[in-house]
Design brief:
The structure is a single chain. The chain has 233 residues and is α/β, with parallel strands linked by helices. The protein has a single domain, classed as 3-Layer(aba) Sandwich (Rossmann fold). It contains 9 helices and 10 strands. Strands 6-7-8-3-9-10 form a 6-stranded mixed sheet, sandwiched between helices. A 4-stranded antiparallel sheet has the order 2-1-4-5, covered by helices on one side. Helix 3 runs parallel beside helix 6 and helix 7 packs parallel to helix 8. It starts with a strand and ends with a helix. The structure holds adenosine-5'-triphosphate and magnesium ion.
Length: 233
């Protein structure tokens, strides 16, 4: 569904990604782990089009989007939920979701929202509430729901568990897994919370200094020796 090869990008004169190869298939949840500053967010920003690739290639469902701007990548099926969520606090739940449907060209937006609500009963109950009054976990749910309103093929999630209480982390993990299993959604999950990674992932990649350095199985994360070896935690 999503493939990237030889991806390089950075900020001004600072190179961050040094040739990243990654592929996420339909219904697959691939997690990216790695230390602070490893380049995880930079990878997601480069895939979404928030940051231009200096070289390499990105394609979605067979379509080369490397040189396309972010809004065209969204239409091609890439949805990005940034670190820190980026929802509109002054808008209601319903209004936030309405913004999310803009990437879904030519579809019935009411219908899309109803389908997304099936996965998020709380958002349906509170559709008129201002998003800024939600708890952190609820805001994260809303950010994911809003991304889904664009009817993406691939969802890029940057640290959805950050600053969220354990019960909601678990709920998010279950939800991501269901979306992959039931909707065939491809998910690239950047996450440091190992419970979330283990509950949602099909497989995991370890990133260090702008490169993918290991491919591991979610079960490997239970093994402290392997953890130390792979993540130097
Ligand atoms: N806007 C920016 N301008 C300049 N340098 C940046 C910018 N954003 C990130 N960097 C640098 O790029 C490198 C990779 O940062 P990135 O945010 O991708 O790491 P990360 O793996 O997401 O880390 P974290 O786990 O802390 O979120 C770091 O050295 C960081 O300082
Ligand atoms: Mg980051």
């Amino acid at each position: 569904m999503l493939t990237a090869s030889g991806l390089r990008s950075g900020y001004g004169a600072l190179p961050v990604l040094h040739g990243v190869d990654i592929a996420v298939g339909e219904g697959e949840v691939v997690s990216v782990l790695g230390r602070n500053g490893a380049g995880k967010t930079t990878l997601l920003r480069t895939l979404s089009g928030a940051l231009a690739a200096q070289s390499g290639q990105i394609s979605v469902g067979g379509l080369d989007v490397t040189r396309r701007p972010a809004f065209q990548r969204a239409r091609a099926g890439i949805a990005y939920v940034p670190q820190g969520r980026g929802i509109f606090g002054m808008l209601t739940v319903e209004e936030n979701l309405e913004v999310g449907t803009r990437a879904a060209v030519g579809s019935d937006t009411t219908d899309i929202r109803q389908r997304v609500f099936q996965y998020f009963p709380i958002l349906k109950e509170r559709s008129g509430q201002r998003a800024g009054t939600f708890s952190g976990g609820q805001q994260q749910m809303l950010a994911i729901a809003r991304a889904l309103c664009g009817q993406p093929k691939i969802l890029l999630l940057d640290e959805p568990a950050e600053g969220i209480q354990p019960s909601i982390v678990h709920e998010i993990g279950t939800l991501v897994r269901r979306l992959a299993d039931e909707q065939g959604l491809a998910v690239l999950l950047v996450e440091q919370n190992l419970d979330l990674v283990m509950s949602a992932s099909s497989r995991c990649l370890v990133m260090d200094k702008g490169r993918i350095v290991h491919a591991i199985q979610p079960e490997d994360l239970k093994d402290e020796v392997l953890l130390k070896q792979f993540l130097a935690l």
